[in-house]
User: Fold this.
Amino acid sequence: MKILVTGGLGFIGSHTVVELQNEGFEVLIVDNLSNTSLSVLDGIQNITGKVPAFEKLDLREKDKVQDFFKRHHDISGVIHFAASKAVGESVENPLLYYENNINALVYILQELQQKTEANFIFSSSCTVYGQAETMPITENAPVQQPISPYGNTKKIGEEIIIDTAKVTNVNAILLRYFNPIGAHPSTEIGELPIGVPQNLVPFITQTGFGLRKELAVYGDDYPTPDGTAVRDYIHVVDLAKAHVIALQRLLNKKNTAKVETFNLGTGTGSSVLEVIHTFEKVSGKKLPYKIVGRREGDVTSAYANTDKANTVLGWKAQSTLEEAMASAWKWEQKIRK
Ligand code: WQD
Assistant:
């Protein structure tokens, strides 16, 4: 079976391609290479021994998307990762995010709605919950108006899929990621460092390696045990495996609704200081950091209630924070050699 993975050379996309190939799927990747490089294809092949088919494609170009689907009739499912994902950048440049994250989604769905079988996995985010009232967060927690345009594109994307599925053959699963971290244990693929990292873990590993002077901890005055904000850090390989299971659910017609939603996290919340201390433990290094003011738009706490993914999908994250941090550190050292 041929599976289209958009953004398949990206951080989560590439790890998902590996797991798809491990399960025997034929994979076709499209990526516009705006936030990755072709070398990721080599990394995937070094892990699985199989080179996925690849086409450079910018999904913002409607005619190119139409032409692509004219040439590929035998796609059984689509996992859609391709999107811009930097929260801060989205505030500075909202139209870049609305064009890239919404138009592309619409153009793909316009093609899928013409197919008799259209299975669609959407990369969403816990950011749609904003600051949820209750921890851990279930899929029934209200979707709030996300603070960033990035978060808003995920909320709108979900709504577009729901409206489309109601009146077409499209069946979809929305996967709301918490905080993806780490790298494949082979160190053949991982989070590619382009520019100054916005996310906590790559900034920590680059600081640990000496590329950054110190980590700025955005606030220690939150109502949490140690005052720093709490998140649910999930190993990217665990996240990737969840995508394959979700896809198989649709391919095997096990879904009980046209659109299903799952939170993908570990179910455990970790504070920024706990992540720092875990890094120090796995690396044996002291991490230089300073406490600064809160970052605009950050929530106090977000970690997943994973009961639904555990029972309905039959999926559970396997890696601990320590294992995930160790894989991130191993990757950092590998790419700096
Ligand atoms: C985590 C914690 C920061 C950097 C966002 C998106 C989410 C997903 C992951 C794309 C927070 C603190 C961070 C730093 C810090 N996006 N921090 N110093 O904001 O929880 O989630 O990225 O896939 O959709 O919303 O992740 O890693 O940026 O921050 O203190 O230099 O680390 O304040 O508490 P976030 P993050």
